[in-house]
Specification:
The protein has about 180 residues and is α+β, with helices and mostly antiparallel strands. It has 4 helices and 11 strands; from the N terminus they run αβββββαβββαβββα. β2 and β3 form a beta hairpin.
Length: about 180
Amino acid sequence: MKKILIMASLVASVSLMAQGTLMLANLGGGANAPVFEKDGVTKVAKNAYKALVYVAADEAAAKTSTTPVAAAVTFNAAGYFVGPTVTLTGFGPGSKPWVKVEVFEAGYNDYATAANALAKVGVATFQLGSGLGGGEPPLPAPGLVGMPKIEVAPIPEPSVLALVGLGVAAFLLRRRN
């Protein structure tokens, strides 16, 4: 019976140790990284934008991640969003995972939909500048420390001349074969 209790407590402690905490905020918890309009000076308006946060073990995985750690967070002040503190399974306290932050106009549900509608969007991928919180005794959950400057702008459509050039090139390649 003692062996079973010892094994159960070991399994429970290992699973608890692998859970770090992160505050979904670009202000507070050591972070101060406002989001700007295209001019790089004007902070985005309160309630006009949302942010989705993704976390991964490496940069490539963060850039391609499609599962956010929580629901979209609305900007509470000009340039800033402060969301909930989330528990990240698989990332221990003190670890520094890679983070992707997608910012998009609040009228849309996600970055891809906003970008396809030519709405203002912005994205940044970075390694967290301070270790995750959690553990025993618990470390405080950091904000998005190390987040680079994000400027929101619509993703431009290709020009008509560029599309014509691609069409002519495709025609010539096709004709050559």
